[in-house]
Structures are given as C-alpha cells and as structure tokens.
Design goal:
This protein is an alpha/beta fold. It contains 6 helices and 8 strands. The chain has a 4-stranded parallel beta sheet with strand order 1-4-5-6. Mean pLDDT is 87; it is low at 2-27.
C-alpha cells in the first residue's frame, strides 16, 4: 500500500512539472564523439637512424606503414616525439644525446598525426637552439599541433585547443625533468 501511494505521488509530481525548452546550442552526452589514437615514444635510436638512412637523407615512413591506416582513421591522433628535431646541421644521433633528422616532422605529417608532443626528458639533449629549431620545423605543418615546447611564456600560457566534431579539447603537456641540462 505504501508503494502504491509513493508511485501515485511520483506520477503526480512528474506530470505537473513545467516543460523545459531544450537549449539548441547544447548537446547531450554522447551526441558528439571524437575517436582518439595515441602512439607512445617515437624514439630514434642509432639502429633506427641507420635503417632509415637513404643516401644523403632519411626516410622514416616504412616504420609507420602498418599503423598509418589506424592513425588516419582516428578523428585525432597523438604521437609523443621523444627525441628533439634539433637540425640536420647537428647530425643525427642516438643515445644518450638524441637528434632526429628534420624529415621526421614531414613523415609524421604524412602518416596523419594531428598532435605531436615535444616535451620529454630528451628535449634539451642538443640545447636550447635545438628546441627552437624543432618548434620551427613543426610550424611548417599547420594541420599538426605541436605541444609542450613554446617560443615564449605567452605561448606557453595560452592553452592550445583543438575543435573536432563539435567538441573542444584542451591540449596540455608537462615534463618533469631533462636528462642533461
């Protein structure tokens, strides 16, 4: 009997509620979705550099052929570029002070990565000028967001946001330490 009274009261309360107009600018949970694929450390050790060597340059594309369809299928794809692109004039190098050839930025773009992280423990392996060079290399590819390394305090303080499928996603990157500097 108590259950029946409670049910009647609930039906009455629900039935007497004022209709609320839905805000057309807002979406309910689940209406907008973004698929996301992430790849861990893109770390170019000496053996990988040797295998990618092509005459006077490098080609890293064979490393990504098996994952390229998955990267391109995702609405957003992320890679952690563990090693700095410090400039070809410094020479490619592996452990312990990495320097990845500039062509890596182009190769990551060709694979279809949308977001590239540059803040790692190897960021300063070749010094501050290498950091500046890496930023400049990734600027050449406007469809990729390069996060974690910035030209100024103002750039660093400006949170990068990617808009995709009606959603806005903040991109934050933090690094705890640097190996050498």
């Amino acid at each position: 009997m108590k259950f029946l009274k409670l049910l009647i009261i609930l039906v009455f309360l629900v039935g007497c509620q004022k209709a609320v107009k839905k805000d057309e600018n807002k979406t309910s949970v689940g209406e907008n979705r973004v698929s996301f694929t992430a790849v861990g450390d893109n770390l170019m050790h000496e053996k990988l550099l040797d295998e990618a060597k092509q005459g006077n340059g490098y080609d890293f594309m064979p490393y990504y052929q098996n994952i390229k369809p998955y990267i391109q299928k995702a609405d957003l794809s992320f890679v952690n570029q563990e090693t700095i692109l410090g400039g070809n004039q410094l020479g490619a190098s592996g452990y312990p002070n990495f320097n990845t050839p500039d062509i890596m930025a182009n190769n990551l773009n060709e694979v279809g990565f949308d977001i590239v992280n540059g803040a790692t423990n190897h960021t300063l392996d070749k010094g501050y000028s290498a950091v500046q060079h890496s930023i400049e290399e990734f600027k050449k590819y406007s469809q990729m967001e390069y996060i974690g390394l910035y030209e100024s305090q103002e750039d660093r303080d400006n949170v990068q946001v990617v808009a995709k499928n009606g959603l806005r996603i903040a991109l934050l990157s933090y690094n705890q330490l640097s190996n050498n500097k």
